[in-house]
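CORE FACILITY INTAKE
Project code: CF-77B
Contact: R.S. (postdoc)
Sample description: multi-component assembly, two entities in total
Requested service: structural model of the whole complex
Turnaround: standard
Below are the sequence entries exactly as provided by the requester. Do not edit them.
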Amino acid sequence: MQTEISIDEKIFSYKKIWQNEMDKKQEYNVDLAKVTKRQHGKFYYKYIFIMKIFMFFGSFAMIKYFFDCAVALYDTKYFSIPYVIGIIITILELYWFVLFVVRIYQININDPITIFEKKQNLILWMEKVEFIFTSITSLFAYFLLIIPLDMYYQYDNNFICYFGGFLAKRWPIILIGTVINITYYYLNIKVIKKIKDDISLENIRINLNIFRYELYTR
Amino acid sequence: MFDEEDKRKFKQEIGQYMELIKNICYSYGGYKVYSYQDLLQETLLNLWVGFNNGVEKENMLAYVYRTTINTVRYYSRKNDLKNSVIKRWNECEEDDSAVAEEKMELYDIMVNLSNEERDLFQMVLNDFTMSEIAEALETTEKKAMKKWESVKTKIAKILERR
């Protein structure tokens, strides 16, 4: 009984402390525009950055090819067009990746208003271009251009002979690269869709703010 | 886009629970101004979305409470609550007053209670009556009372350990 009473007393005194603590929240003034924009900034950081990581792994096959090309060029000391194309494309792809990351980080998270109003079109545009670019490089260039050219030079026009050997030797890389690439494209399409959906959600947020201001300041 | 009537209703219905919503958001995200504001923003957005989608509004307190708690738990990071407590803890250590000791006791209790127990404890601290707690938890007053008794026993154990 004694403990019961003392606990009730304690809780009563805790109540006072708690109320005082809770009153401190008044110091946190709510700037609605900034909150909304920051939330949006978080969205971009979260999804687009995940996409970039996927893209990086999606370029795994290309990076592997880059080193193959570089080593082959160094070892054989003979000029091979597919190797050079491979190196140029890989460098372009990596350059695009770095450019994108830099662009994202140029946007200051503490001033996120710029993200939506000024950089939104840029981000969407870059996303689209990158989508097309990576599609061309990894699907068209790698599988349709580089491999046949490689076959042509290395095996004296004997495509079938090389293709069999190529598949036998490189199938795990092709498989992993393809699976990662397809996943990346699938997610990319979903993200572009999500961005579009989120723009409508953004409109709800902005509209909501207009009258919600009264709620915040009650 | 929004009906004036809807806005008026929303303000009227949700407005009366703003203090509760703010308190819950503050207790989780209070260690950082951004964190608190974001939680409040998301909570109100979710309340609005649910409100417009015709959720059961008979028990408004339960709807507000459930939505707020779920949103706050979903959006706050894993260590948000812990960080909040630690920040206040550090403030207490700097403070020499007699209240500081009690404050530390309170935060010790907060850290050691489970999520459900802590929520119940916070409602009591926010001066909710037992019938209001029962309403928010969508249970009977008797069951809420029983839960509170078990939380009290746990609090006593925590205090004994100190």
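Facility notes:
- Residues 107-117, 204-218 of chain A have pLDDT under 50 and may be disordered.
- The first helix of chain A runs from residue 2 to 23.
Invoice: internal transfer
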